[in-house]
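Lab manual, section 2.4: Encoding a predicted structure.

Procedure: take the sequence of the chain (610 residues), apply the prediction step described in section 2.3, and record the output as structure tokens. A sample record is shown.
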Amino acid sequence: MRIQPRQELLDIWGATVRTSWQDGKWQWGGRDGPNSISDAEQLLCILLPATQANFGIDRPDETDDEVIRALRPLGTATQIPRVLIQILTDYYQRYTDKSGTPIFSGRSYFQTDGGEPTEQQLALDIVDSFAMSITLSLSAIGFARVFRTAVRREEILREIDELEAMASARLTAAMVGLLRSFAVNVFDVDSPEGQALLRTINQTGRPQRQVVAQFRRELRQTIASFREILIGSGQVADLDHPHRLFECGWAWGIVHNAPEIDTTEPIGEQPRGVAPEEPYLYFTVIAIDAIEELFTERTRILGLLNDEQQRLARALQLRWDLTRAYWATVATFGDGHRWPLEDIPWRTTDRDASDYYTLLVTSLAVKGLVLERGADADLVRIGAVLEELANRARVTRRPFDNDPALALHEPGVRMTLHNSDQLGGPVLRWTVSEFSALLLQRTAFIAGLLSNADQRARLLDLADRVWEHLVLRRLDHGDARSLWDQPAKAFRELNNYYDAPSWYYTERVVQSLVTTARIIRRPPLRSDRLTAYAMDLLNEAEHLFDMELLSGTAEAGPKMQQTLQIVRVNLRRARDIVHERPGTAASLCGDVLRTLDELNAARRDVSEAG
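Recorded output:
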């Protein structure tokens, strides 16, 4: 890959600290102003690499010099983690009200088509904040746990205890928020929603009755599992009728009439919900990705969840399973000739269509294929969809005049937050413009799943081209240089230029680079052809080496014995790694064969001269 994620992440660290750390104090808020989501994204630009990409700063004695240089404004290797503890503590205090209730409002991220939103609207909880808080809190607790092992001073230990308590409370509150935001929208086959869903999944023009029957048959286990939802929202009792269809996922916020959840954790009040029980693709994918963080190896090894959080996590996992199964079935429904996912753009049941929705559905489809051990051929099909999306979004193709595809990048896809006007004020909107960064993350992730080296290389090449596009969109002056997003630099048809960074977009780029770093750290793919070739070379090299020893060369002088020892070591190394790294083994064998041929030629020359 041409992407160098480690160096890119170090550059982002340097730019983030340069922008945020002013006069010995952390400055909150970027282009969109401070809110519970943007400020978490700002912190995750530091914490995601620190906790998920081996950029360790929680063990000062082991911190790399280049990491210290990137974060130098925060202090020395021993000062950096303590400063981060204090910054994180400030965040949790800022977003906890006087009653001790964590704040999950969207505030400055909320938009309208005109008119000022009311204070009650600005204070509405939103799923994006729940999801971001899970990721941030798990990162913060894990960071504090590891740093604790390197600390002896009582004062710092008390700071760590305080941070862990606040982060744990917010983590629990965020999990409860997601449980109360889960939505199952049930509708009749003949309803507008039912007809929209059928148009999406019926790619071959089959009779409607057959499609409905097959769809329900493939989802029968999912339908039955809804009876296991006992807490939070999403409890349904009218799915058994054969002429009913449904969709599930996460609403934009807490669902109207969502019951409160009994918990022993100190999470304060559980606010009343106003969101209709209608899943949104964007909020569903955001929630799904956050829930997965609850079950990672790191979360398990460090013991980041207490007993109550593990109970809530199991309830979330059930919703994760149901949602994953539903969307994987919808995306790949049919006889395999053409998946609904391949019918670009994706159309939602409220008849909205966008290439961005297709990109979101690829994420959900891949999760289903991974769990069901999908073949490379299925993943390659999704990779082809990503290639098409990159072209359609003008990421890898030049735009034409007045190209409507540019709206994906600026202003982005605008979603209506239904029922948000019930608290007075105008209807709220939510805008997402992360298409290119999300495309890179999904491309790198799928490439890492492929076992076919050629197909993997093709997707990694696509990732490189998407990264070239993202590099163009960096801010290029001021303290925020090397951060994002400046789409007008990539698309000359756009004319808005920004000085302040978008933490929303920069955090998505960081996610993509962290994913890319994970892919690069994995062992290279093994090729059967290359392994067979390396084995042939190894067999020949070992045989020729045995012949050389038989000829009495080993009895020669010290220099010859040293040469033979090097040959022996290389052969042993090649034998050890031939199945894991056949290319390297072949190279070692090539060196051995060249050395043995030189010895043979030298002996022949001596013989002929005599």
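Check your result against the sample. The beta strands are 21-22, 25-26, 182-188, 244-250, 346-347, 353-354, 413-417, 428-432.
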